[in-house]
Write the structure tokens for this entry.
Amino acid sequence: MKIGICSDHAGLEYKTRLIAYLLGKGHEVVNFGTDSPESCDYPDYAHLLGAALDKGEVDAGIALCGTGNGMVMTLNRHPSVRACLAWNVEVARLTKEHNDANVLVMPARFVSYRMAVMMVRAWMETKFAGGRHQRRIDKIALH
Ligand code: RB5
């Protein structure tokens, strides 16, 4: 898979480690920043990942900030994005099975790195269940 990844300063350390993890698993990774520990604004990086998903330049995304909420709020402004916040393995699994999330967002200040890796693995291994969940996803869009 070609995976886009982004963070703000709060998620930088986990992002750096996750890039190495994903490359080790044979994925292609596109890093949208930040690459500096200086305080920065999460929308600047979330929009880069969202635009890449809208253009089909990456297959899926991973995003990290302190709470994850800024990333989720920004990413979901992009029409092709379904970004979900996860904080444990079961929630990460359900973001794919029920919500067909194409971006997994994690709160770097509130989960361990080990938990972040386990969530990424669960999210990537899970398939969307379809059926009633597809009907619910279809109702999300404003008409
Ligand atoms: C940065 O201090 C923090 O506000 C940011 O990482 C994130 O939690 C925002 O949603």
Q: What stands out?
A: The pocket of D-ribose is lined by residues 8, 10, 42, 65-67, 69-70 (CB under 6 Å). The beta strands are 2-7, 28-31, 60-65, 83-85, 103-107.
